Amino acid sequence: MAVVLLFQPDGLLDSSLLTLTELNALGIGCVVVSNAPLSLDDRNALLQHSYLVIERPNVGYDFGGYREGVLTLMARKLPIDALYLMNDSIWFPVHDAKDTIAACRATNADLYGLHMSTVSRHKSRSYVQSYFLRFSHKILSSKSFMRYWEKLHLIDNKSTVVRYHEWHLAQYFIKRGFSIDALVHSRDLISTIMNITDADEMRLMLEHQSAICPKEAKYIRPVLARSKDALEARDRLMDDIKARKIFVTLTTVHPILLLRMKLPFLKKMRRGDFASQRAALIVLGLTKGFNPAVRAEIANWDSRRPEYRDTVKLASL
């Protein structure tokens, strides 16, 4: 089963129906929790792909919605082998969900996600990004699972919700002897960068980082200027890359890197760095293999931003 959280006050996106369709095709039933009111047409469309649709106020943001979905589902005492939690802050899947769900089912980890973040060198600071989580039967069968959700404190500050609950969730289950893992780790980004052999692609990646992050630009631009090509610059910057002074945030990197890593999702955030990433996808024609619903949404996602044309122009340089 999956709890799929939506917040779409302007109307249901086609990509959300795609997510449900893909999960259903892989034998995963869905409970949809909407943190915004649904029109009758949207509710009926969701019900065609869902076991249950819940509408609630946007109290507690993502984790508030997750909590309501989990407690509602567990109260019905259905036989659940594994439980997925995911929200609509990502496009998933950009292609199809088959390989991702196969990896989820093959893992021995008790808590599994798409992306593991590490905020320091210590594993104790690692956590799984909360836009996609999978809980094993072992966790679901434990008293710790229900206790976590029953006692979850709802916070009405979005950034605090993510910062606190994301990290705390991982630590809560680690301290109780459960294992965590993810499809992609931050270290995978470093190994992918090291294996780039095309100087033009490497230049695009380095220039993208310089454009979206001034702190990283101060490392990249001087080295790029005195290197014979971008591969040499990459090699000179490798210590800074490994120290995570450059390419700090996996989800904002140039889309060529994401595609090389076979990341099955893209973030929807409307921030400038993500808009630059989407512009590069469009300009370079990298969305051709995407699901049509996802491709169409990406093409129009930033069109209302006043700086959209400048973003597309930057991506084409």
UniProtKB/TrEMBL annotation:
Transferase as UniProt keyword: yes
Enzyme Commission (EC) number: 2.4.1.-
Enzyme class: transferase
Identification of the protein by name: Lipopolysaccharide biosynthesis protein-like protein
Keywords: Glycosyltransferase, Transferase
Gene this chain is encoded by: y4gN
Family matches, as InterPro entries: RgpF (IPR007739)
GO molecular function terms attached to this record: glycosyltransferase activity
Superkingdom of the source species: Bacteria
